[in-house]
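Side project, low priority. Logging it here so it doesn't get lost.
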Amino acid sequence: QVQLVESGGGSVQAGGSLRLSCAASGRTFRGYAMGWFRQAPGKEREFVATISWSGLSTYYASSVKGRFTISRDNAKNTVYLQMNSLKPEDTAVYCCAAGSGSYATQAKYEYKYWGQGTQVTVSS
């Protein structure tokens, strides 16, 4: 099993920035892609961003494209989500996830391990 722990959430004003981190532990895994998802109360969990094992491929939800950047440091077993120009509609619990393969994917069913999430609140 893989344990994922997110950090870096908080409350910011619209237009501000936050950087989320997701640290993996519990086992050594090979070639997992990583993703970020978010969920607001009463809403389904939705895709935000994903990155391949190599870090060479990334994909973003249209709602965050140009504002968010996903990156990873495999030596540190950590994936990041830099969030700029935050909007109130970005308010949600953000979760990281580890996929079953090396390729970046936005499909929730491709992810096998999930963190507990970190709260991001953006005020207007």
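Brief comment: The mean pLDDT is 93.
Revisit when time allows.
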